[in-house]
Design goal:
Elements (H helix, E strand, L loop, with lengths): L1 H60 L6
C-alpha cells in the first residue's frame, strides 16, 4: 500500500511538471499565431487600402490627353 502511495505521489509531481510545460507551449503557440496574423493580415489590409489609391494615381498620371 505504501509503495502505491509513493508511486502516486511521483506521478502527481510528473503530471504537474507536464502541465507547466504544456502551458508554456500553449502560450508560445498563441503568440506565434498572433505574430503571424499581424505580419500577414496587417499588410493585406494596408494593400486593400493602398492599391486602389495607387491605381487611380497612376491612371491619371498616364492618361492620354484628349484632343
Amino acid at each position: 500500500m505504501e509503495e502505491i502511495l509513493k508511486k502516486l505521489a511521483e506521478q502527481e509531481v510528473k503530471i504537474d511538471a507536464m502541465y507547466a510545460s504544456v502551458e508554456k507551449l500553449r502560450k508560445y503557440f498563441m503568440w506565434t499565431l498572433i505574430i503571424t496574423a499581424v505580419t500577414v493580415v496587417l499588410p493585406l489590409l494596408v494593400m486593400i487600402i493602398a492599391v486602389p489609391y495607387l491605381m487611380s494615381t497612376f491612371s491619371t498620371m498616364y492618361q492620354l490627353p484628349i484632343n
